[in-house]
Amino acid sequence: MCPIHLITLALCAAMTAFAEPSAPIPLWSNGAPGEQPGPGNERDTTTAKDGLIAGQRVARIGGITNPTIQIFSPPAGKKTGAAVIVFPGGGYRILALDLEGTEVCEWLNRIGVTGVLLKYRVPPHEGAVRYAAPLQDAQRALRVVRSRAQEWGIDPARVGVLGFSAGGHLAAAASTNYDEQTYPPGDAADKLSDRPDFAVIIYPGYLAVKEDGDKLPPEIKVSANTPPTFLVQAEDDPVRVENSLTYYVALKNAKVPAEMHLYAKGGHGYGQRPTELPVTLWPKLAEQWFHTIGVVK
Q1: Does 81 score more than 60 pLDDT?
Q2: CA pair distance 78, 220, nearest whole angstrom
């Protein structure tokens, strides 16, 4: 085969590796609860002083008042039917939308899983509980995805969540507050379950209250019905490895299937961009775990 044909085949393979993601889909049919209508002041807050991750810039999006979801579908021949709603981190102030969002959805597509990027509301309004609006958005996203599962080629019984940092706290909150109605029902989707079928939590924050002997915060109510969970963190994480340890022990005590990976080095905020550190190999371990729990057949 001549070289030009080889190049053409390579380009075709690259083009079919990912389907074009959907346009952003408004999460709320009549606007998010408690938000004023209008365009808001959403913007990329990244400056030249912000550090690079694995040699690349990070998009730090703030001022989000109109939450959306965006669907990243694998090629039809590779689709497994599983879906993961991705919660980027950012301390509930901004969202690392590429590092912990779009790039993660692209990885999920490579293993046949539909990625759903949730752009949830940040930062909180003055005086508001920092996770309250994001939890409403997370619950609504789970319900909307299940309501359109047939349209998007998703098994509604295999819909999980994946969160980084503050998004890891949000994933834990969604995993332990699914029986609480945090907003008034608005349409038929709100009659569906908002319980994740599984959770992946990467370098979480806000899961251990240092001033209270590293107990769980009151909003994280682990029970036997908390979904199976996969945890990753590094011991040198400035956001304290106790966040993962505390949550893991609570899962263990409740007899919830859980898998935890701890690494000596890695710090915080690496997403799934590969570096020389072994902690950035976590996506391969998560893929194996998806098979272990039967999410990917």
Answers
A1: yes
A2: 35
Tell me the whole-structure pTM to 2 decimals. Answer: 0.93
Is domain 58-292 annotated with CATH 3.40.980.10? Answer: no
pLDDT digits (tens, 9 = 90+) for 85-111: 999 999 999 999 999 999 999 999 999
113 in Cβ contact with 80 (< 8 Å): yes
3-state secondary structure 108-167: HHHCCCEEEEEECCECCCCCCCCCHHHHHHHHHHHHHHHHCHHHHCCCCCCEEEEEECHH
Please name the residue that has the structure tokens 């889909």. 25
**Of residues 113, 47, 118, the one with CA closest to residue 89:** 118
C-alpha distances out from residue 273 to 104, 178, 192, Å: 9, 31, 35
What 3-state class would DSSP assign to 72? strand
For 143, residues 6+ apart whose C-beta sits below 8 A from its C-beta are: 189, 190, 191, 192, 193, 194
How many beta carbons lie within 10 A of that of residue 276, not counting itself?
7
- Domain borders along the chain are 58-292
pLDDT digits (tens, 9 = 90+) for 207-236: 999 999 999 999 999 999 999 999 999 999
Evaluate whether 105 touches 115 at the Cβ level (below 8 Å): yes
